[in-house]
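Annex B. Sample input.
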Amino acid sequence: MRIAILKGQQLVAQGDLAGALTEYQKALDSNSQSSLASYRIAEVLYSQHNYQAAVNSYRDALRGDGDPRWTEVWSHIRLGNIFDITGQRDRAVNEYRLCVQTNDNTQGAMNECRQDLQKPFIRPPDQ
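Annex B, continued. Sample output.
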């Protein structure tokens, strides 16, 4: 499973998102509860502006095995971001509050949560 995820990450870095999705799906096929595989799939879908599918995958990550732990906090952040982007501020605020409750500051997550609670997230043009 980890090899498929690593291959997927390499393919994302090379710009092959379709190939990356295939690799992440292989990882998910070998462990349907993999939070990391679901999270990585969601990242690709988010980057393609496929928000509904990304929401579904982030939710799968939250329902998964919780490994690694940071997938929880960052799934809440990205869900909040998607809800802000799509004009659903109440839902976004709820996700940011859930994010803060994790108390997980992996890669500055708490700062991101608090910032997004203060003002709606706006997706930068290069994302």
